[in-house]
């Protein structure tokens, strides 16, 4: 089977021609396997798709058109009303996001104590210091004032989680630039809970080139040059 190790991008499937040579063809959205309600996704066209297979198959069939270029995965779950993000909310967003990233790394560290392999040795050494210092703030929702005070007082605790998240997303390719597709795993899961995340990332792209460079990303989170 020449398609066994032949990779096609999302929305395409491999088919072998008469000579057995593999080719990538658009996935027929109607041929996608059935999905459960919780697997539905919302596209940037504000249309609910049965799953990512149907969404990316549709995008592939629209390849070369303006509609195809504009269609992306917006967020997980069926489309719903997402309230607009106010200026005040987007200003406070980095505070919550930094705290959330720090807490994720701490959870990974705690899990890694029992099941090694979640973090690399280098990551473990970095997070260990954050973990030991984090006991000042009790887990849970914190007022904006406390998050701001903690960031200013314990600035270096927050630098690594911001860098770590960037490099977790920067995978296809690893080039210190985040595309819409690379941001999607983070954005798509958070939009229903954090309605400011779309505007936040739009404003992170300071030069409007549809790419978020490491410097732009860090600037958005308040990390100094």
From TrEMBL:
InterPro entries on file: EF-hand-dom_pair, EF_Hand_1_Ca_BS, Fol_N, Follistatin/Osteonectin_EGF, Kazal_dom, Kazal_dom_sf, Osteonectin_CS, SPARC/Testican_Ca-bd-dom
Pfam families, per the entry: FOLN, Kazal_1, SPARC_Ca_bdg
Q: Tell me where in or outside the cell this protein is found.
A: Secreted, Extracellular space, Extracellular matrix
Which is one Gene Ontology cellular component term of this protein? extracellular space
One GO MF term on file is: collagen binding
List, for all copies, the residue spans of the domain called Kazal-like.
25-81
User: In terms of domain of life, where is this protein from?
Assistant: Eukaryota
- Keyword Metal-binding in the entry? The reply is yes
Which keywords has UniProt assigned to this entry?
Answer: Calcium, Disulfide bond, Extracellular matrix, Glycoprotein, Metal-binding, Secreted, Signal
| Primary localization class, coarse | secreted
Query: Do the record's keywords include rRNA processing?
Result: no
What family does the entry list? Belongs to the SPARC family.
Protein name as annotated: SPRL1 protein
The organism of origin for this protein: Copsychus sechellarum
